[in-house]
Amino acid sequence: MPLGHIMRLDLERIALEYVVPCLHDIGFCYLDNFLGEVVGDRVLERVKRMHRDGELADGQLAGPSRGVAKRHLRGDQIKWIGGTEEGCEAISFLLALIDRLVMYCGSRLGKYYVKERSKAMVACYPGNGTGYVRHVDNPNGDGRCITCIYYLNKNWDSKLHGGILRIFPEGKSYVADVEPIFDRLLFFWSDRRNPHEVQPSYATR
After folding, report:
1. How far apart are CA 197 and CA 113, in angstroms?
2. What CATH number corresponds to the domain at position 97?
3. Which of 12, 67, 190, 205 could serve as 163's disulfide partner, Cβ 3.0–4.6 Å?
4. Where are the beta strands (DSSP E) in 97-150?
5. Are 137 and 123 in contact (CB under 8 A)?
6. What is the pLDDT of residues 11-60, one digit of tens each?
7. What is the pTM of this model?
8. Pfam families in the record, alphabetically (predicted)?
9. Residue 79 lies in a domain
10. Total number of domains in the chain
11. Which of helix, strand or coil describes residue 100?
């Protein structure tokens, strides 16, 4: 796996000069061309295989309907992985880079100092208008601080395919639309500062 592209990245500089200021100023940020095409393709192929082999299950709702799948509210299919599973070397590499980025943010995330993360959630919206209604990842203070999303959609045309992640930053007069394009890494606060939705997808996302 040709990792030269990644190893040249100054992750600490990116964390301190871009990720931290953006999180404080607007509550989210994204990095494009994060892994590069070759490594990104390895991640994509592994996720495609999970999808093809039927390893993904319907996403469940939290809150009062906890554990219930209601596809008109949440239409994704998911699988939680640690990255140590057989054939997941590229995913493991991606998770390690994200871990390093967050680690370099260190004590500069306000009241947060992130020491660990959950497993990674592989998610697929199978098209047919599936999405995820407006919600907050961590509405109840369960410990989650930052949500990181790595997108795998090649040749994605949001005007045709939909699937935009729309963020409604708390107290702001605007919304932020993030297109789910290949090799884009997105960070945002997981708490009530960032309600967000996945708009209906009309292709496999």
Report:
1. 26
2. 2.60.120.620
3. 205
4. 120-124, 130-135, 146-150
5. no
6. 989 999 999 999 999 999 999 999 999 999 999 999 999 999 999 998 77
7. 0.89
8. 2OG-FeII_Oxy_3
9. yes
10. 1
11. helix
